[in-house]
Write a structure and sequence with these properties.
seven-stranded mixed beta sheet; homodimer; 340 residues
Chain lengths: 340, 340
């Protein structure tokens, strides 16, 4: 197993990326290819105490990097030798099993689609982060790749999310819910109503375990394992969870800072508090999978530190080993929605 | 000031509604009209220790109640003498300054629109709850009344929310943000892009303080005072905040239940914990205003207890005293969006 890592992507590149790559190599035993400026990468390795390139690690030199301000639609034409673009080319050419990048989300999605390409028959690739729920976790698909969706996209997302939940998260017969503003069949816009009908049919035919519409609150309570929605609403949900988690975190923190007694209380519950923070922290969760691309591409959080990058590599390995893409290919016929 | 309360609406009607009405009367000094089954209301008053009708309190007898399963579109035709419908008629006829109901949201919105009617020129009434932010609070408009919106609806919501934030929440020159999946002008669907252009124009002309697109996470951090969005995304945001708040609440709770030491810690921070819970608790926040209706209508949470109802009455009084509706009427000319 070889994972290709864009060493120049993200706010803390290349140092934290390289540090995370080293940790992932030790933890998971995978080989690593780093794409980026060789001199900068070697210097980062040196900062981590590595005077020579560790065995199983390679550097592919690139002279450019994709910046946040670059237009995703044109950057790979303008910058032919970017660390992100080269990483995706290596993946396409079979020089590794998955790509991990903490660089621009838009560019990575465009690059994955243009260079690595979607699975044949998949209309749109989706971003599928794993969110915390009261009882465990759930896959949220899509969360921003496709602001405007058709019922067919959503039906495909339902399958993609379901396969991901089963293959990568290990959830048997995942419960798929359609994110909506109420549980009744009449709720939502035309998009939800049409999608609901298709998903009910897929459930009836035994291809999916579809439980119907689900409200955001019920989904967070653990009401389903796969939350299907358009990228606009999915992004609003994801960012609302992040925002509220951070709001709750700072409220709790200030609670404990009041006086000597509350500071004492803080010491007593510190381990638990840290695990709560970790649950709400995108750095700990790792990366977001792009599902529907013909090979595994994982977007690590832009603010990733070494630990986040390490976790994203772990996720990339699980994805690559999961058989998820074969699942998609084998079920493509069910995912086609004829025009009504 | 007289507030009309639907005594039969909500999960805990009539007892908690009547209890809350009594508390509100004492706290705010307002007169109260209760619509509902006189016998049931008198019995509830008796349970609260009131053997006679308190001075300033009236009961208007009704023989029916709107149920959650009733179709909002037809219920007021089928049930001519419902506590909710009669409350709205009394408001229309000037027999009180505002209506508060904890009954079906859909029915209350339809009833408010059909019976009390919208302000002339307003295309759609919106539901505008006040959500907690890291630095204070913000108005979220719309949060579910209108799943499908046009740019004109959203432009009107921006004005309505801005007037509400200024008049009812007391925020000077409220910062209006358009909820989106990124801050850049190119983000979102056609709806957001068109709305953005109109709102920039309104800002340029000095009618609104528009700050551009805002992500859900930034909005929860306190990045704006008015969050403008369609009812679908607004509902997803609201319910995600509620769900995550409750997730955080139970995570914190279990944290403190671990052992004797953590239980001791809980005792030390209990007052603070309770105020955190209150911030996240819809019962404490009170009600959601329907803005754009020609008189104040407040939807109290369906699970309202007496305290929630009391708070919703307080909000109704502030709304009725605020001059908000006069504001809307005076600015109607700016809120018209010509077809392009």
């Amino acid at each position: 197993m070889r994972i290709i890592i864009d060493a120049m992507g993200g706010d803390n590149a290349p140092l934290e990326i390289v540090k995370g790559a080293l940790a992932a190599q030790k933890r998971f035993g995978a080989d690593i290819t780093l794409t980026g400026d060789t001199v900068a990468v070697l210097r980062a390795l040196e900062s981590c105490g590595e005077t020579t390139l560790p065995s199983g690690m390679e550097i592919v030199n690139t002279t450019e990097a994709v910046e946040m301000c670059d237009d995703p639609a044109t950057v790979f034409r303008r910058k032919k030798d970017s660390s992100m673009g080269v990483a995706l080319q290596l993946l396409r050419d079979g020089k590794g099993e998955a790509v991990v990048s903490a660089g621009s989300t838009g560019a990575l999605l465009t690059g994955a689609t243009l260079i690595v390409k979607r699975v044949r028959g998949i209309r749109r690739a989706a971003m599928a982060p794993v969110i915390p729920t009261t009882t465990g976790k759930a896959v949220l698909i899509d969360c921003g790749a496709n602001a405007e969706c058709t019922p067919e996209y959503l039906v495909q997302f339902a399958y993609l999310g379901s396969f991901y939940a089963r293959r990568v998260l290990g959830i048997d017969n995942p419960r798929v819910g359609l994110l909506n503003i109420g549980a009744e069949d009449s709720k939502g816009t035309e998009l939800q109503k049409e999608t609901l009908a298709w998903l009910r049919r897929a459930d009836g035919e035994g291809h999916l375990h579809f439980i119907g519409n689900i409200e955001a609150k019920e989904a967070i309570k653990g009401g389903c394992d796969v939350i299907v929605t358009d990228g606009f609403s999915g992004n609003i949900m994801l960012k609302s969870i992040e925002g509220t988690g951070s709001l709750a975190g700072s409220a709790i923190k200030s609670l404990f800072k009041k006086n000597l007694l509350t500071k004492l209380a803080a010491a007593l519950v510190m381990p638990g508090l840290n695990s709560f923070k970790a649950m709400m922290d995108p750095n700990k969760v790792g990366g977001t999978a792009f599902i529907g691309i013909s090979r595994p591409v994982i977007k690590a959080h832009g603010a990733s530190n070494a630990e986040a990058l390490e976790n994203a590599v772990g996720q990339a390995i699980r994805f690559a080993e999961s058989g998820l893409i074969a699942d998609i290919e084998a079920n493509m016929e069910h995912m086609k929605v004829e025009k009504e």
